[in-house]
Design goal:
Elements lengths: L5 E4 L8 H16 L5 H4 L7 H11 L8 H19 L11 H10 L3 E4 L6 H8 L7 E2 L13 H9 L7 E5 L2 H9 L3 E5 L10 E3 L12
Parallel strand pairs: 1-2, 1-4, 2-3, 4-5, 5-6
Bound molecules: 6-O-phosphono-beta-D-glucopyranose (BG6) and magnesium ion (MG).
The site of magnesium ion has 10 residues, from loops.
Length: 216
């Protein structure tokens, strides 16, 4: 068994199903720009920052050079507006199965916890879910130079927790996120599709299925 001292969580799609809301908001923006955003394409946007996601969408519609930087910033703000409407009514009932029990167990076991989400909306969402107090550290994505799949955000979380990465577990729903955890030298737990997350050390359908003693 691993010697686990810290668990570092992704937010969207792991703690609550906001991955779906990001998809719906991009889909709406895509429709306005004449660029279809399919569920399949959206898999490549999971874990990726707002501006990088926009660039990928514009590229997929062959429109990467159709907008100025100011216009792109406006499009990103517009997407965030749609997203904020969708998350406005989020509440503790929207916490995904198994998450709160896991967080409680980690607290009781003296295991430190961190959040490594690319989302600038993460503290707002954790607050609405009533989960903010379970987290010892939250990485500010605005201070991260290279987004997932780069390991920087997970390495930063471990540093903030004053833990060595090889004593930490990272939990992710996105392929890019699992890659980031692996490159950070942590043990990776994927939540979701076994094929998409086949590079994770361990995959569960939901966190209800995660028992720390099974890892390693
Ligand atoms: C990640 C999501 O957690 O955060 C991405 O998986 C999203 O889909 C990214 O684009 C940035 O989120 P936000 O809330 O800052 O636009
Ligand atoms: Mg995610």
């Amino acid at each position: 068994m691993l010697e686990i001292k810290g668990v570092i969580f992704d937010l969207d799609g792991v703690i609550t199903d906001t991955a779906e809301f990001h998809f719906l908001a991009w889909k709406q923006l895509g429709e306005e720009l004449g660029i279809p955003v399919s569920r399949e394409f959206n898999e490549h946007l999971k874990g990726i920052s707002r501006m990088e996601s926009l660039e990928k969408i514009l590229e997929s519609g062959d429109k990467a050079s159709s907008y100025t930087m100011d216009e792109k910033l406006e499009l990103a703000v517009r997407k965030n507006g749609y997203y904020r409407q969708l998350i406005d009514s989020i509440a503790p009932k929207d916490i995904l199965p198994g998450v709160e029990a896991l967080l409680q167990g980690l607290r009781q076991g003296g295991i430190r916890t961190g959040l490594a989400s690319a989302s600038h909306n993460a503290p707002f969402i954790l607050d609405k879910l009533g989960l903010l107090h379970y987290f010892d550290v939250i990485v500010d994505p605005g201070k991260i130079r290279s987004g997932k799949p780069d390991p920087e955000i997970f390495q930063t979380a471990a540093k903030m927790l004053q833990l060595s990465p090889n004593t930490c577990i990272g939990i992710e729903d996105a392929a890019a996120g699992v890659e980031a955890i692996n490159s950070a030298g942590m043990y990776s737990v994927g939540v979701g599709d076994r094929i998409i997350l086949s590079h994770a050390n361990y995959v569960v359908e939901s966190l209800l299925g995660l028992r720390l003693q099974d890892l390693g």
